């Protein structure tokens, strides 16, 4: 900032020696000041001011719809301060290698001034740099939604890979998939069908990396795998179907955050969202371009039929049943939320006139739809804290949904939980071991056993971990209050919390952990392991086998009485490797998600017990049912596997392990 001294022109105040008056305008310079450096006093508050958000252009649907200007939009995402060309940020990097032509495409630099001014590159189907921008922007948007709902960072560190890698042109083929071993999402491209390609040009190149739904779907696969790594092991018909269904749900509800498109669809449908393909259909261009004549999947693709679930085994078709159940609950609640608006707009008749709705009504209805979609999306993501570490079922997810929402929204004025339960009931999805479908029966039970309280030393460790969430530790280890945390303390906090789910990894390069903090995490991990070994039988684990700590993290919630609830969520897993051959290469696992209060009291347990002699009758019943279900599942899958007729002994011993493959799972179906 230039400060001018009071007094005679051309003189500088001694109290402001850094200020400089503008040089006189000279005709020789075309009426401009001479190009010499001018010293300025810089406002210190501006130095540390960095925009929190960055806007980037995307296709809000598929390019097929994006040819219309209203479906080309810009979204705001977190503005990473050290974003490199690629883009390459703290948790995501785009590597644009074309596997078909064996070449790299030049990486886009989103920090170029021109791109910063124009919200990045304009949507363009033929520019690889826009493809890079598209996958980065949508992936970051999905990650922000998950991070906001869970209240903690999402990590993607896998061994030597510090970031989730996105490869927009990885191969030629009608597929896209997440590969856990490579910690990468590979997007394919292919030619549209020559016959019946829908709105596409026959034979045109179709890029899966330009489909908002496919990007969101695959990033969600990566998120789910990071939260529950064993959900990729097919131990029953619901496990892989849950992976697919949950990824579809996130892609579906993410679209409701684009308010302009939502308002337009409400205007067209006069508020009846269930009839709008743009909002309920997934991956339209992919489906049409393969000659299917319709979108890849739809949230309304499965009508209510309690008998359908038992007859459906293919994971995408089975997952569509769960998606329809959730969307049914969403739509029932949406109608309840806008009922008063419709009554006011129609004078109590409830019948809207034909033609265009009033813009004010459209905006209010769109606001209700967007808020509810965000609520349901958060509800689904928060449910992960109430899911078991292994062997998940649709019924487990319903119980987790109800439990998670009851903690945050006990009153439930629009009966969202009731509508969700009804959506699941109408499709034959019932949890195990519940007495009824009432909320109080579906909520995971609260344990009140003082013998299972965490040891005092472990409570002290966890309370220090809780403090890190709201405070910053300085390099001496003292807990200090900061009104505005420094950049280094923020990075340290991010690294500490991200490490909580993986005890043996170092912090990321950009956020190194100080020895004291890293030691705290390891102390908690070792203490939790000792705790689990001591209480194996009580938790349904075989006392003769070891128990591993699958991960732990602090959670902050606002309770029904508006007080802050601080809890510790821990995953324990027990593995019986001796039974791998029996289950086609996948061992028998038991798992338990335990939720402790800040004082160390055990509040909630979500258990998948291991069968062993001497356990309680209820635990034995649940364990034996799990064992029977896993064996039956392997037998049913074997009946549809032609490779067993000519496969060798090695294939037979590892067949279920080989089937947990996203590339094969998505082949031909996206």
Structural commentary:
It is a single chain. The chain has 670 residues and is an alpha+beta fold. Among the domains are: 1-44, no CATH class; 228-443, Neutral Protease, domain 2; 450-639, no CATH class. Helix content is 40%, strand content 14%. Helix 6 runs antiparallel to helix 12 and helix 11 packs antiparallel against helix 12 (359-382). The longest helix is centred in the middle third of the chain and has 32 residues, at 315-346. The protein is globular, with a radius of gyration of 28 Å. Residues 1-47, 285-296 and 472-516 have low confidence and may be disordered.
Write the layout of secondary structure elements.
Blueprint: H1 44-47, E1 53-59, H2 63-66, E2 72-78, E3 92-94, E4 97-98, E5 103-104, H3 113-117, H4 128-150, E6 164-172, E7 176-179, E8 184-191, E9 205-207, H5 212-227, H6 237-254, H7 259-269, H8 277-280, E10 281-282, H9 284-289, E11 297-298, H10 308-311, H11 315-346, H12 359-382, H13 394-408, H14 416-425, H15 439-442, H16 456-470, E12 472-473, E13 479-480, H17 487-499, H18 515-534, E14 548-558, E15 564-576, E16 588-597, E17 602-608, H19 617-639, H20 649-659, H21 662-666
Parallel strand pairs: 3-6, 6-8
Antiparallel strand pairs: 1-2, 4-5, 7-8, 8-9, 10-11, 12-13, 14-15, 15-16, 16-17
Helix pairs in contact: 4-5, 4-12, 5-6, 6-11, 6-12, 7-12, 11-12, 11-14, 13-14, 16-18
């Amino acid at each position: 900032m230039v400060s001018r001294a009071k007094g005679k022109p051309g003189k500088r105040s001694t109290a402001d020696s850094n200020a400089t008056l503008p040089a006189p305008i000279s005709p020789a310079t075309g009426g401009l000041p001479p190009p010499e450096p001018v010293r300025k006093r810089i406002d210190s508050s501006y130095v540390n001011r960095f925009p929190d958000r960055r806007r980037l252009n995307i296709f809000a649907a598929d390019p097929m719809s994006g040819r219309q200007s209203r479906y080309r939009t810009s979204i705001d995402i977190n503005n990473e301060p050290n974003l490199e060309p690629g883009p390459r940020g703290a948790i995501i990097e785009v590597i644009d290698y074309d596997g078909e032509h064996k070449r790299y495409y030049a990486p886009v630099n989103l920090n170029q001034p021109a791109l910063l001014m124009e919200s990045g590159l304009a949507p363009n189907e033929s520019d690889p740099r826009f493809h890079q921008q598209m996958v980065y922007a949508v992936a970051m948007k999905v990650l922000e939604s998950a991070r906001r709902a869970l209240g903690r960072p999402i990590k993607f560190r896998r061994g030597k890979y510090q970031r989730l890698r996105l490869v927009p042109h990885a191969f030629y083929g009608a597929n896209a998939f997440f590969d856990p071993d490579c910690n990468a999402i590979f997007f394919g491209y292919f030619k549209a069908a020559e016959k019946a390609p829908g709105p596409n040009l026959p034979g045109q190149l179709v890029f899966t990396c330009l489909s908002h739904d496919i990007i969101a779907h695959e990033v969600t696969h990566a998120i789910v795998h990071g939260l529950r790594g064993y959900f990729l092991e097919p131990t029953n018909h619901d496990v892989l179907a849950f992976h697919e269904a949950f990824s579809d749900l996130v892609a579906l509800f993410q679209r409701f955050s684009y308010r302009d498109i939502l308002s337009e669809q409400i205007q067209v449908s006069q508020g009846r969202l269930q009839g709008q393909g743009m909002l309920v259909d997934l991956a339209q261009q992919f489906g049409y371009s393969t000659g299917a004549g319709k979108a890849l999947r739809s949230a309304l693709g499965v009508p209510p039929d309690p008998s359908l679930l038992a007859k459906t085994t293919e994971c995408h078709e089975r997952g569509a049943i769960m998606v329809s159940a959730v969307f049914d609950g969403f739509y029932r609640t949406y109608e309840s939320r806008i009922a008063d608006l419709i009554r006011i707009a129609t004078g109590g008749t409830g019948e809207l006139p034909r033609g265009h709705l009033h813009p004010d009504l459209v905006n209010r209805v769109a606001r209700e739809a967007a808020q509810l979609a965000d609520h349901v999306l958060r509800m689904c993501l928060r449910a992960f804290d109430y899911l078991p570490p292994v062997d998940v079922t649709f019924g487990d997810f319903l119980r987790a949904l109800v439990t998670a929402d009851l903690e945050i929204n006990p009153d439930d004025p629009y009966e969202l939980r009731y509508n969700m339960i009804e959506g699941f009931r109408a499709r034959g999805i019932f949890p195990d071991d519940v007495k009824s479908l009432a909320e109080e029966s579906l909520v995971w039970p609260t344990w009140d056993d003082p013998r299972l309280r965490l040891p005092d030393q472990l409570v002290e460790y966890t309370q220090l971990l809780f403090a890190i969430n709201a405070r910053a530790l300085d390099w001496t280890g003292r807990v200090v209050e900061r009104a505005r945390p420094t950049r280094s303390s923020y990075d340290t906090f991010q690294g500490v919390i991200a490490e909580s789910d993986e005890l043996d990894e170092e912090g990321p390069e950009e956020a190194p952990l100080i020895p004291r903090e890293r030691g705290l995490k390891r102390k908690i991990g070792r203490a939790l392991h000792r705790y689990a070994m001591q209480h194996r039988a009580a938790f349904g684990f075989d006392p003769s086998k070891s128990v591993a700590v699958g991960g732990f993290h602090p959670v902050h919630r606002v309770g029904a009485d508006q007080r802050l609830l601080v809890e510790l969520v821990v995953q324990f897993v027990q593995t019986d490797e001796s039974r791998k051959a029996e289950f086609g290469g996948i061992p028998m696992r038991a798992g338990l998600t335990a939720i402790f209060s800040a004082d160390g009291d055990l509040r909630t347990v979500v258990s998948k017990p291991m069968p062993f002699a001497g356990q309680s009758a209820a635990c034995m019943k649940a364990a034996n049912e799990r064992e029977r279900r896993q064996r039956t599942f392997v037998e049913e899958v074997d009946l549809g596997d032609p490779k067993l007729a000519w496969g060798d002994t090695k294939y037979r011993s590892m067949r279920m392990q080989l089937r947990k493959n996203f590339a094969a799972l998505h082949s031909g179906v996206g």
